[in-house]
Specification:
heterodimer, A: Rossmann fold, OB fold (Dihydrolipoamide Acetyltransferase, E2P), 2 domains, 10 helices, B: 305 residues, mainly alpha, MetI-like fold, AAA+_ATPase (chain A), NA-bd_OB-fold (chain A), nucleotide-binding (chain A), ABC-type transporter activity (chain A), transport (chain A)
Amino acid sequence: MARIQLDQIEKRFGDTPVLKGVSLDIQDGEFVTLVGPSGCGKSTLLRILSGLEAADSGRVVIDDRDVTGVRPADRNLAMVFQSYALYPHLTVAENMMTPLRMRDLTPVQRMPVVGPLIARGPHRDMRKQASDVAETLKITALMDRKPGQLSGGQRQRVALGRAMVRKPLAFLMDEPLSNLDAALRVHMRAELSELHRRLKATFVYVTHDQAEALTMSDRMAVMMHGDILQVGAPDEIYLDPNTLEVARFIGSPAINTLPAEAQGDGLLHVLGVSKPAPMTTTRQPVTVGVRPEHLVLKEAGRFSGTVRHRENLGADVFLHLEMAGLQQPLVLRATPQDAARIALGDNAAFDFDPADMLVFDAQGGRLRATTPAREVA
Amino acid sequence: MQSRAHLWFIGPAMALMFIVLLIPILIAVGLSLTDYSLGNQGAEFVGLENYERIFTRSTYEKMFVATFRYVFVVVPLTVGLGLGAALLIHSLGRFGDLYKTIYFLPVMAALIAMAIVWEFAFHPTIGIINSTLEKGCGTFLEAWPWYAKGCERTFPLWLNDRDYAIWTVSFIGVWQGFGFNMVLYLAGLTSIPPQLYDAAEMDGATRGWDRFRLVTWPLLGPTTVFVVTISFIRSFQVFDMVEAFYPQGGGPSKSVFVMMFAIYEKGIQQNLMGIGAAITVVFLAFVMVLTVIQRWLVERRTHYV
C-alpha cells in the first residue's frame, strides 16, 4: 500500500529528450495506467519509478520517503515484465520463491542442499507463502514445471505470482498482456481488475492499448512525446479530452475529425452546415471531433456520405462514409437493423447533436463551452 | 511400387559420410590389429597385441600421464579464465573490443611461431623469465624457500626439467587457449535477456554474486557444456607445441609425451602404423566418450525449452 509521487522527472537518451519534466501523483490503492503510443516514454517512466533507470532530474517519492537514489531492490516494489522474465532453469515454485529467498534468507541459508537443512523454518514458510499465492492464481498444478513447459497465459500468472508473493508496496506492470492472444487478453483484463480489488494495492500499469487503459484503470495518464497530456478517470478522458491528440488516441474506432470555421458569433460552419458552438468567440479555423457513436443515421440529416466499407461486429456495424471535402472517411456506428437498410455504395444521410461536438482550435487545444448548448429543433 | 526418391535425398550425404568419416575410422581400427608398416607388401594380424602394449608398457603410461596432466590443467583454467575475461569485458563499455582483440591474439597466432618466442622467454640464462626472477633475489621474496633455492643455485630450466616441463607446456596451452573460450562465453553472455537482470534486481539480488548465481551461470549452461567439451577435445589434440619444443621425442624423460605426439612418432616417424592406429583408436574413444557425455548433459540439464 503506497502513495507514489513522481516530481518533475526528466530523462534524455543522448540528445533525445524522452521525458520532459513529468509529474504524477498516485494515490494509495489506486490502479493508474500510463497509456500512450510507442516511444512516448511511458516504459521509461515506469523504469525510473522502479529504479531500474535513473532520471536525469526530478524526484521519486514513495510514502513520503524520497527514493530517488535508492536501488530497485530496496524500494520494495514488484514488477511484471512484458516478456515475463521468468528464470528458465527454475521451476514455477522456485521462481515464485526467488524474491523471498533473496530478501529473507542469508547467503548461507540460500545454499543448495545445506540451506534447507539448517533453516527449515524459513524454507517451510517460503513454500507456504508461494503455495498460498499459487492457490489464489489457480496455478497450484503447475508448481513443479519449468517456464518452458507453460503456455503464455500460464507464464503470465507465474510472473504475477512472483510479484505478489512478497507483498510489495506497489505493483508495476510493463505491458504484461501484450504477448497474449486476443481472447486471453480480454480475460486477463478482468482478472487483473479483480486482483486489484482483492489486494487493494497500488497498481501502476503501462500499456499502448487504450482499451486496456479504459477497462481497468481508476485513473489513466495519457502520455505523448515525453509528456503527460491529461490525467483523469477513463470516462473523463474519453468524453472530455483536453487536446485533439488525446481525443484521437483514446477510443476505437478513432474519433472523426472535421475541419470547420468558427464564425465568432457562437456558430460554426462544418462542411457547409451551421452548428451552434457557444465555445467559439472569435473567427478562426477549428477542428470538430465527433465520436462514431454520436453520428446518427437520420433521413432528414444534413450531412450525407457514400458508404465505402461496412465493418460488422455483430452487435454494432461501423459504416465508413466517404464525403466530399474530407480525406479520411467518417466512421459511424449503427445498429444492425439500421445498417441492414444501407448497402455498399449507397448514400447515407446522418447528423449529430452539437452537444456531442468536441471543438479544438488550430493548435489542437480544446475549446470549452461555459454553458452547455442544445440545438433547437 | 514404392518411390525410391528418398534414396536420392539421403544418398549424397550418406556416401560422403561413409567415404570421409566412417571408412577411414574402420580402416584405422583394422590397421590397429596388425603390424602394418607403410611400404610393406602385407601385414601380420596380431590381434590385440598393440592395445596390450599401450596399456602395459611404461612409455605409454608416460603418454597417458602427460596427456591427462595437460588436459586437467588446461581445461579448468581455460574455461575459468575464459569466463572471467568474458564477464569483465562484457561489463566494460569502451575498451571491450580492445581487450577482446588482445586476448584473442594468441588463438589466431600460429603456435609453432609462438613456441619460438616462448623458447626464448624460458631460456635458462638469457630468457626474460629467469632474468626477471633473478632481479628479485635479495628482497623479501627470498622468504619463500623455492625462491631462495633458485637464487642460490639457478632458477628452473622450465622447458627441460622433467618436473617442470609439462606444467610449463600447460601454461602456454592456457595462454593460447583461453581467448577462444572467452569469445564463446561473450557470445553466450549477449544472448541472456537483459530483462532477467532487471527481474533479479527487483527480486532483491543486490550483490553481483547473487546475480551471477541466479541468472548468469544458469543461462550460460549450454555455453559451458559446449566450451568444456571443445576445450577437452582441443587439449587432447595438443601437438604442435610439443613438436616445436621437443622434436626429438616427448621432452625430458618423455614427460611431455602427449597422445597426438605419440601417434605422430610411432605412426609417421618410426613407420609403425599398427601401433599408431591403435593409439588413434584409443584417442577416438576418449573423444567419443566426451561427446556422448556432452550430448547427455545438453539434453538433460541445460536446455530450458
